Amino acid sequence: MNLIVFDLEWNMGNAPKTFNYHGAELTLRGEIIQIGAARVDENGDVLDTFEMTLRPRIFRKLHWRIAEVTGLSQGDLEAGVPIAEGLRRFQEWAGPDAEFAEWGLDDVPVLKQNLFLYNMDESWPTRWYDLQQIFLKNFPRGEGEGLTLESVVDRLGIEHDGDFHNALDDALYTTKICRRLPLAQGIAEYPDPAAQLTAALLNNTDTETYDIQTYFDRLDHDAYKNDPALYQVGCPFCGKPLVLNDIWLKRGNTGYYTEATCPDHGPWFLRFKLNRRDGLHWNFARCIETVRPESYARYKKLEKSQRERIRMKAERAGKKTQE
Q1: What are the Cα distances from residue 195, in Å, to 4, 213, 229, 284, 318?
Q2: How are beta strands 31-40 and 46-55 bridged, if at all?
Q3: What are the tens digits of pLDDT across the range 249-268?
Q4: Band (75; pLDDT cuts 50, 70, 90)
């Protein structure tokens, strides 16, 4: 295994920047200005390091907040390696078979977006791990305990011998946390993307579910209601096609559900959970859920409210057109 523990710092603009990804308009999370990485063995011991400051091309002026957090200056950026060259050198150093580990899940999406913007292979890396998940299995989170890198370093009594929000120092702090973990076991047992998404779908679900499926690498956020491959389902009891309500409601931040009715066995809920781990593609987990009287009553109440909002919005649009 070629495991790379890494951290990025990135710049942003005063206004959002969008870009076209194969027909989908996406918001750029940030433009990389600093890369820090360590190649580690199965125990988390450092074998090699990589550090580079990059000169951005899109967000050329260092945002004041980024300067405040990182300690970088405009001069540091202007003296940096051109971003496309820096990304190529990082790819060469890490290797095509690199598996990435990061503290949280923020950096890989930024990396992949930047690779695409500079005409490089955004499918790399194909495998990456959120070390927070491995940490929490071994050090359950207590009340009031944070999960920032600095708070965990303090919690574990790790000496402060570098600057936080410096990419290489943060990567090295992360390796020190790795050495307190059964890293090889955590990597071996790490759930694949389908298992992670399914677990999120079924989290806090205490009703029976059927026909659990996952779908990956879609460009349309609304594929759950636009793509028949995702929403066409059959009754779990008889297999007849379920007829979907046209009203979809949110469940949580990235969940959606609607009523799906069998002519013989009545209503079910068709539920989806979404994520976009790589910053480019939407992934979906789907299930059919048993309807309970209280949950069905709640759905119908919310459905009525949403239909009223849609009606009022249409009326306002019509009035503006007439004006």
Answers
A1: 23, 10, 20, 12, 46
A2: antiparallel
A3: 999 999 999 999 999 999 99
A4: very high
Taking CA atoms, 278 is separated from 13, 74, 112, in Å, by 21, 29, 7
Residue appearing with tokens 């409210």: 305
Task: Report the distance separating Cα 28 and Cα 110, nearest Å.
Answer: 8
- Of 7-16, 21-30, 289-298, 311-320, minimum mean pLDDT range: 311-320
Pseudo-torsion of CA 223, 224, 230, 234, nearest 10°? -150
Strands 128-130 and 81-82: unpaired
The CA distance from 26 to 56, in Å, is 19
Q: Which residues pair with 320 in a beta bridge?
A: none
Query: From CA 124, how far away is CA 112, in angstroms rounded?
Result: 7
Most distant CA pair in the chain: distance in Å? 70
Q: How many CA atoms lie within 13 A of 32 on its CB side?
A: 33
Burial 143-158 (b: 16+ CB within 10 A, else e): eeeeeebeebbebeee
Q: How far apart are the first and last CA of the chain?
A: 66
In 42-111, DSSP assigns E strands to: 46-55, 81-82, 98-102
Residues 6 or more apart in contact with residue 119 via CB below 8 angstroms: 84
Rounded to two decimals, what is the model's pTM? 0.92
